């Protein structure tokens, strides 16, 4: 019985980091929302390093368009991330909330990305952007 218990404990301890890593996979969680207050929010973001939640305009083709808001995020899990819109967004507009890094720019803590640039660029996992799309209400 002791051997079984030790084997079970060893297996559980060995598997724990894998479960933690899976739980902390980079992601953006948000839902359709009113932007009448000039703010777009994500419920939760998980990122491998400090960076940015960047809000791009998008459409049915699901390509990131111009940036309309951004907010800093921490390494790990950040909840209730709010970004102030820099231009008007109408009800029905589609917005892509995306994780961008804080790398390659001239200054830390200053958002330096422009569409297509590498500074503070988007995070990709296996070639896929870490993002979600919502519709403004």
TrEMBL record:
Pfam families: DUF7282 (PF23951). Residues 27-133 form the DUF7282 domain. InterPro entries: Slg1/2_DUF7282. This is DUF7282 domain-containing protein. Keywords: Signal. It comes from the Bacteria. Residues 1-20 form the signal peptide. It comes from Pararhodobacter zhoushanensis.
């Amino acid at each position: 019985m002791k051997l079984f218990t030790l084997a079970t404990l060893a297996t559980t301890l060995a598997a724990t980091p894998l479960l933690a890593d899976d739980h902390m996979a980079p992601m953006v969680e948000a839902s359709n929302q009113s932007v009448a207050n000039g703010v777009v929010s994500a419920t939760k973001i998980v990122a491998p390093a400090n960076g940015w939640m960047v809000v791009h305009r998008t459409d049915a083709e699901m390509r990131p368009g111009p940036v309309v808001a951004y907010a800093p995020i921490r390494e790990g899990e950040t909840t209730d991330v709010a970004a102030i819109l820099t231009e008007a967004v109408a009800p029905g507009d589609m917005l892509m909330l995306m994780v961008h890094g804080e790398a390659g720019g001239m200054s830390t803590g200053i958002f330096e990305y422009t569409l297509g640039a590498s500074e503070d660029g988007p995070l990709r996992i296996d070639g896929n952007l870490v993002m979600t799309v919502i519709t403004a209400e």
